[in-house]
Design a protein that fits this description.
With 325 residues, the chain is of the alpha+beta class. It has one domain (57-319): Double-stranded beta-helix (4-Layer Sandwich), CATH 3.60.130.10. The chain is 23% helix and 25% strand. The protein has nine helices and 17 strands. The protein is globular and about 50 Å long. The protein starts with a strand and ends in a 6-residue tail after the last strand. The relative contact order is 0.21.
Length: 325
C-alpha cells in the first residue's frame, strides 16, 4: 500500500484504498451500510496531529475535522500574516472554533470580510444594522429547521466559500452544531462509486427550502434571478486540490440527465455518507463562541433539540467560486 502525505491531504493508491475498505463489513440488506474500522482516516488524522502554528494554538476536536483556536482576540485588527495562517488552518481542519469572543455585529462582519466579499441572503432576514449578517432567532414561536445535513446555499451559481457563525443567546442544553468531513465522505466510497460519480453533475434549487418565503407577486423575478444550477457531485477543492462530496437533501433535486426517481437512490447513498459519526465533530455553543467553516469541505447540521427555548445566532457568509470538477 503506497501512502504519501502532503499539506493538501493524504494520497492512497487504488490498491491501498481497496485494502483499507476491505477491513469494513458491509450489510447488503441495508444498502451496503458498513461497520468496522474506518481505516482511511488514519493518514489525515496523523497529519493533523502534527500541525503547529506560529500565531495561535489549535486543539484538534475529532479524528480529521475541527480545531479550537486559542490565543487570538478577534476584536482586534489582525495582521495579514495571522489571517493567512487562519486561512491555512481552515483548509486543514475544515472548521475552526473560537471561545470568549465578545464581538459586536460590526466586528463580526469585519472579521469575516478579511477572508473575502460577503453575501447578502435573499430569503433569510438580516441583522437590522449589518445586512451581511443572517440572523437565526429561534424560540417557542419559531422552531429550528436546520437539522438536516447540508452545505449552505448550493443553489447559488457561486455558493459560499465559508461562513462565520456567532452565538448570541443559547439554551442551557441543546442546540449544538455538528460538522461532517466531506473529503472523508468521498474518500470512504468504494471504487465503483467513485468511478460512477467522478463525472456526474447534480442540479440544485432553492425552492424546497425557501420557495414558501417568496411572495407570489415576485415568484417569476426570483426564479429568473436564481434558476436551478448544476454543480459536480464530487468537485475539486480550489485550495487543497482534494475531492469532496457536494450533494444534500435540502437543495439537490436530481442528477443531471436523470429523473428525480432515477436520481434518488444515488443521492440517498451519497447523502448518507455525512451521517457517519467517524467523519464528524460536534460543537457545544456558549455565548460569544464562533464557528468558521469551509462550506466546501464540510456539511453541517444544527441540532433542533432545544424547543421551546431561545437560540439566537448570526452568520456572515463569504462568497466563493463556482465548484469545478
Amino acid at each position: 500500500m503506497a501512502v504519501a502525505s502532503s499539506r493538501g491531504g493524504v494520497v492512497v493508491d487504488k490498491e491501498g484504498v481497496e485494502a483499507l475498505h476491505a477491513m469494513r463489513l458491509r450489510l447488503p440488506d441495508y444498502g451496503g451500510l458498513a461497520m468496522g474500522p474506518v481505516a482511511h482516516l488514519h493518514g489525515e488524522r496523523e497529519r493533523l496531529s502534527k500541525l503547529r502554528w506560529r500565531h495561535f494554538d489549535a486543539t484538534l476536536q475529532a479524528s480529521t475535522i475541527g480545531a479550537e483556536i486559542r490565543g487570538l482576540d478577534l476584536r482586534s485588527e489582525l495582521a495579514e500574516a495571522v489571517v493567512d495562517e487562519l486561512r491555512a488552518a481552515l483548509h486543514d481542519y475544515k472548521v475552526i472554533f473560537f471561545r470568549d469572543q465578545r464581538l459586536s455585529a460590526a466586528q463580526h462582519v469585519a472579521f469575516a470580510r478579511r477572508f473575502g466579499e460577503l453575501e447578502l441572503h435573499p430569503f433569510i432576514p438580516p441583522n437590522t444594522d449589518e445586512p451581511e449578517l443572517v440572523r437565526f432567532a429561534k424560540s417557542a414561536d419559531v422552531g429550528g429547521y436546520e437539522n438536516l445535513w447540508h452545505h449552505d446555499v448550493t443553489w447559488r451559481e457561486c455558493p459560499s466559500m465559508g461562513a462565520v457563525l456567532r452565538a448570541i443567546e443559547v439554551p442551557e442544553t441543546g442546540g449544538d452544531t455538528l460538522f461532517a468531513d466531506m473529503y472523508a465522505a468521498y474518500e470512504g466510497l468504494e471504487g465503483e462509486w467513485k468511478e460512477r460519480i467522478d463525472d456526474m453533475v447534480a442540479v440544485h434549487d432553492y425552492a424546497f427550502a425557501f420557495g414558501a418565503n417568496v411572495p407570489a407577486s415576485r415568484a417569476d423575478e426570483v426564479r429568473t434571478r436564481y434558476p436551478p444550477v448544476e454543480h459536480p457531485v464530487a468537485p475539486t477543492h480550489a485550495a487543497t486540490g482534494r475531492r469532496y462530496l457536494y450533494v444534500n437533501r435540502i437543495f439537490t433535486t436530481h442528477i443531471a440527465g436523470m429523473t428525480r426517481d432515477q436520481s434518488l437512490p444515488i443521492l440517498e447513498h451519497l447523502c448518507r455518507q455525512a451521517e457517519y459519526p467517524e467523519y464528524q465533530c460536534r460543537f457545544r455553543w456558549q455565548p460569544d463562541s464562533l464557528a468558521f467553516w469551509d462550506n466546501r469541505a464540510v456539511q453541517h447540521y444544527a441540532a433542533s433539540d432545544y424547543w421551546p427555548d431561545v437560540r439566537v445566532m448570526e452568520r456572515a457568509s463569504i462568497i466563493g467560486e463556482r465548484p469545478q470538477k
